[in-house]
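Table 4 source record.
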Amino acid sequence: MDYLENYYNNYDEDGRLLSRHGQVEYLTTRKYIDECLRNVQTASILEVGAGTGRYRVSLAKEGYKVTSIELIQHNIEILKSKLNGTENITVMQGNAVDLSFLPTDAFDVTFLLGPMYHLYTRSEKVLALSEAVRVTKCGGYVLVAYCMNEPTIIQYVFGLNKLHEVMELNMITPNWHCVSEPKDLFELVRTEDIASLDAEVLVKRIKLVATDGATNYKREYIDAMDDETFSKWMDYHFTICERQDLIGASHHTLDILRKQ
């Protein structure tokens, strides 16, 4: 946890999501959150790994009942600073792999929008996903975010000429899957890894979405766009973000599941 605390104590997550390129991920995730919420009346929302509150604070201000679980105290302090006391939101410190303090079948929609980035074993990932499903009502939605493998191979390993370094550190398997440890901060997956995790729980996949698609490959270009051009970029992105032939090349994905 020290690696995570050090990282988030010094990282401006809100700033990332407010940047032009970060807005693509935020607007896409929010689009699909809203689609799920339209199917649920007076939704009770749980977010596991709430971060600094970019999604859940806005939802609470819109009148939803929100419970936020966050591991890092620094993030909790930032989240609470955004509240004025009128929101129906409960904030607790906790770990995604153990939600035993929450009841079964309690929430209409559960978000797991950060924890899978920082869980490094299959058993931890299955635990986190199983706990998210357990606390969700039958027929409710579970939205899970992942960091994808191929952008790191393309942009970091080859793009930044890190091939020999990562090979010497045994950070790549023979089939080019990145190997991460807590000190590396982010765990990277492929679409087949996500499908394998989904098979461990009683859910039906609704959609797997590329939340930023090609955006981070052209970050400086996106950030320099005027409003009209950025609007057209979002139109294009929304047109292709569900295309399964492109999903694995996105930096971030959103797995939208429904509890059976």
